[in-house]
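About this split. The held-out portion is used to measure sequence recovery: a designer receives only the structure tokens and must propose an amino acid at every position. Recovery is the fraction of positions where the proposal matches the reference. Here is one held-out target exactly as it appears in the evaluation file.
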């Protein structure tokens, strides 16, 4: 039995009914080489080799058409009502099931804006179209992006528990790291120290180890999706961390800030305090406004305006993204109306979604200030999944 797959596939019928769709068809092959991103939720981590079709309907039918040698595995997942084997050609069985269900609207996995809803490779799409040629179903295909966005976004109780545990462990590693930090340590040394704490716990990384954690010390460190460098921590540096572990297949994604006092300082200088306080206020502004039904762009604007109205340049990334099995988990984005984000900032926030909130700014001469918190959207607002950073760590 796969508890996550059972919970997630039990959500599908309601989603299809909401989206006015008669069938969701997941069509895959050789998933060890080119896996559909939604497959771990709809089938599990076990790969599929031959052409395979997973069919879900709004009246709760859950059907798997698979190569004969994968039938036992599919049945043990415990999520499918019917597991149908084939040997030489999936087409006759697939057409038979389509004729039986007779769907008017068939969702398949392609999307222009959401990479996690774009799992049907173009060649396999052409194969599917050929199979459906001469049937009425060929003209009934449409994007499943709304289905996948809802399925990934509406976290089950088990999913929230797993993310919360990943957040807890990530914060514990941060706390241990702050005890061990010192001037003269390079970004690489700090990162390796944190990675050793991850591996002592037998955990994985929420994104590739090469830049997890990201560590930025002082004003000359390249901020973004970059690997730590040989720059060393010096008095008067802001030190920024972006770090997250993966626990039981679910991720945390958290940023924290430290300031190293100069010998003649008893507290951070005013520019540092202002920059830090501005980001804390921006996070709180987004947290206060977020609720089901609000568009992602509106949440983004709440945080972004705090930063720009304080006199800082606009940060050139989204305020937040969804979090789950991946650090960037698709669907609605808390972002601005920029072309690269497509329609994702205009999608509505939903209860059960988990987001990061991560505005940032540069304090000239001291370094980057970026804080990132993980939150769960509730029916009437949101709650933090771990204690937020509201005070600058001072060493």
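Reference sequence for scoring:
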């Amino acid at each position: 039995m796969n508890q996550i797959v059972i919970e997630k596939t039990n959500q599908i019928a309601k989603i299809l009914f909401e989206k006015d769709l008669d069938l969701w068809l997941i069509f895959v092959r050789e998933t060890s080489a080119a896996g559909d991103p939604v497959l771990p939720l709809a089938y599990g981590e076990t790969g599929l080799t031959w052409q395979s079709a997973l069919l879900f309907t709004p009246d709760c039918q859950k059907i798997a058409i698979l190569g004969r040698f994968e039938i036992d595995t599919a049945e043990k997942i415990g999520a499918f009502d019917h597991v149908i084997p084939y040997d030489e050609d999936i087409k006759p069985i697939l057409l038979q099931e389509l004729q039986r269900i007779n769907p008017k609207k068939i969702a398949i996995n392609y999307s222009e804006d959401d990479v996690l809803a774009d799992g049907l490779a173009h060649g396999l799409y052409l194969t599917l179209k050929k199979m459906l040629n001469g049937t009425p179903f060929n003209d009934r295909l449409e994007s499943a992006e709304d289905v996948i966005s809802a399925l990934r976004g509406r976290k089950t109780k088990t999913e929230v528990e797993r993310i919360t545990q990943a957040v807890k462990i990530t914060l514990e590693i941060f706390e241990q790291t702050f005890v061990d930090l010192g001037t003269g340590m390079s970004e690489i040394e700090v990162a390796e120290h944190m990675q050793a704490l991850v591996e002592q716990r037998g955990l994985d990384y929420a994104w590739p180890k090469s830049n997890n954690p990201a560590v930025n010390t002082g004003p000359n460190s390249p901020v973004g999706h970059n690997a730590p460098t040989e720059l060393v921590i010096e008095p008067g540096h802001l030190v920024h961390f972006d770090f997250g572990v993966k626990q039981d297949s679910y991720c945390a994604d958290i940023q924290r800030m430290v300031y190293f006092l100069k010998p003649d300082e008893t507290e951070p200088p005013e520019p540092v305090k202002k920059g830090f306080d501005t980001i804390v206020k921006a996070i709180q502004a987004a947290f206060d406004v977020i609720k089901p039904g609000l568009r992602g762009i509106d949440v983004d604007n709440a945080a972004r305006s705090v930063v720009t109205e304080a006199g800082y340049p606009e940060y050139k990334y989204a305020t937040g993204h969804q979090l789950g099995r991946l650090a960037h988990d698709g669907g609605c984005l808390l972002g601005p109306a920029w072309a690269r984000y497509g329609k994702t900032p205009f999608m509505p926030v939903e209860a059960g979604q988990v987001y990061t909130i991560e505005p940032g700014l540069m304090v000239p001469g001291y370094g980057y200030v970026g804080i990132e918190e993980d939150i769960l959207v509730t029916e009437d607002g949101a709650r933090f999944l771990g204690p937020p950073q509201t005070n600058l760590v001072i060493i």
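Annotator remark: DSSP finds ten helices and 18 strands in the chain.
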